[in-house]
Amino acid sequence: MSRGVFGGLLSLVLVMALAHYLARERFPQSGTGAANDPVDTASDVRCGANQQVMATVIASYRVSHQGENPARLSDLVPQYVAAIPSCPKGGAYAYDRRAGTVSCPNGHRTMP
Ligand SMILES: [Zn+2]
């Protein structure tokens, strides 16, 4: 019985997450849709800003390291950035050394 309740809750959460994702794709950053969750939108914006900051910081590192990206993000601390940010929704950014970019574990992207 308890497994059935859990499964039902899980399905509900998944459906809500999907609906939220679809709504956001259809009305990106319009600011007028009452369906937008302001807290979640703020997380997206802050996460995108974090990723842009990291790209800029990594670019600065490259300039003074003969075009080499840092081996790991911690090499940037503290000379280039005081601390490595993490996603506002939780989770550390994945670092792509070849590209010199970070990506969000929750799928947030930088704003265009
Ligand atoms: Zn994120």
Structure in words:
The chain is built from two helices and two strands, in the order H-H-E-E. It has 112 residues and is mainly alpha-helical. It has a domain of 67 residues. The chain has a two-stranded antiparallel sheet. The longest helix is centred in the middle third of the chain and has 26 residues. The chain binds zinc ion (ZN). Zinc ion binds next to loops.
Quick structural summary:
By secondary structure, the chain is mainly α. The protein has helices at about 1-25, 40-65; strands at about 95, 100-105. It has a domain at about 35-105.
List the SSEs and their pairings.
Layout: H1 2-26, H2 38-63, E1 94-96, E2 101-103
Antiparallel strand pairs: 1-2
The structure holds zinc ion (ZN).
The site of zinc ion has 6 residues, from loops.
